[in-house]
């Protein structure tokens, strides 16, 4: 997986040495439960997740502030399990609350969308959030996704609770229309 460059971030493969930075936010109850996972109890939880999941899932990037080498969040483009064909992927993300409110996730997600449509030839990219996740909803709206509706009781969380999913998607045609100037965001400009 090649690295990608945004205006202020480098998106690169996770490394085991990122465990401290991941734990810094993954232990925060504001983060994991909004994305469906339990807060980490120890640095070891974070290192294990990087080793057994983040480094194995093909398109899972650490979001790095290049001047400090600090990982401030993660973003991924995985198979969309609600759509049963390869050209459909879903966007997922989470970020250290210390860096919320600066537009970093919207910036990273734009580059990942361009990667998905231009480099992976996705036909559609979806994104889902739980009903009370207003911050994620605003990111999704800023990115220009189309609201599809609510898939009721569609996610069972780590604590056994069932949640509705608010569903959004963007087709390749919509992306090309909305992001006419964006070819530079992915193909050809990534830091390899
Ligand atoms: C979802 C999440 C990543 C959103 O973080 P965020 O900081 O709100 O999103 P962004 O980085 O895109 O920043 C957008 C905010 O920065 C502000 N901003 C400041 N400078 C900006 C810039 N240059 N460009 C864009 N926005 C900017 C925006 O106005 C916006 O604030 P607002 O929503 O109050 O209007 C974060 O809340 C999170 O990690 N939550 C927990 C995990 C989670 O919910 N994951 C998603 C599961 S669906």
SSE map:
Blueprint: E1 4-5, E2 10-13, H1 19-26, H2 32-35, H3 43-54, E3 60-65, E4 70-79, E5 88-95, H4 104-119, E6 124-129, H5 134-143, E7 146-156, E8 162-171, H6 172-178
Parallel strand pairs: 5-6
Antiparallel strand pairs: 1-2, 2-3, 3-4, 4-5, 6-8, 7-8
Helix pairs in contact: 1-3, 4-5
Coenzyme A is lined by residues 31, 34-35, 93-95, 100-106, 129, 133, 135-136, 138-139.
Do you know the CATH architecture?
3-Layer(aba) Sandwich
The major pleated sheet works out as:
8 strands, mixed
How would you state the average pLDDT, rounded? 92
Report, as a whole number of angstroms, the end-to-end distance.
9 Å
User: What is the radius of gyration?
Assistant: 16 Å
The spatial strand order of the largest sheet comes to 1-2-3-4-5-6-8-7
Give the % helix.
Answer: 25-40%
Oligomeric organization of the protein chains: single chain
Structural class: alpha+beta
- The CATH homologous superfamily is named Gcn5-related N-acetyltransferase (GNAT)
Written as H for each helix and E for each strand, in order along the chain, the element string is EEHHHEEEHEHEEH
Return residue spans where pLDDT drops below 50 for at least 5 consecutive residues.
Answer: 187-192
Assess the beta-strand content as a share of residues.
25-35%
Overall number of strands: 8
CATH topology label: Aminopeptidase
Total domain units: 1
Please tally the helical runs, counting DSSP H or I stretches of 4 or more residues.
Answer: 6
Query: What is the top-level CATH class?
Result: Alpha Beta
């Amino acid at each position: 997986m090649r690295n990608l460059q945004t205006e202020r971030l480098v998106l690169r493969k996770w490394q085991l040495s990122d465990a401290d930075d991941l734990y810094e936010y993954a232990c925060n109850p504001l983060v994991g439960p909004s994305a469906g996972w339990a807060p980490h109890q120890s640095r070891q939880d974070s290192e294990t997740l990087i080793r057994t999941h983040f480094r194995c899932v093909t398109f899972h990037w650490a979001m790095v502030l290049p001047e400090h080498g600090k990982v401030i969040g993660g973003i991924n483009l995985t198979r969309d399990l609600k759509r049963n064909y390869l050209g459909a992927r879903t966007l997922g993300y989470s970020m250290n609350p210390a860096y919320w409110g600066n537009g970093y996730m919207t910036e990273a997600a734009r580059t990942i969308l361009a990667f998905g449509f231009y480099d992976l030839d996705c036909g559609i990219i979806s994104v889902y959030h739980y009903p009370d996740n207003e911050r994620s909803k605003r990111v999704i709206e800023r990115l220009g996704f189309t609201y599809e509706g609510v898939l009721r009781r569609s996610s069972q969380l780590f604590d056994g609770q069932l949640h509705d999913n608010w569903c959004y998607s963007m087709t390749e045609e919509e992306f090309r229309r909305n992001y006419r100037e964006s070819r530079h965001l992915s193909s050809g400009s990534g830091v390899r």
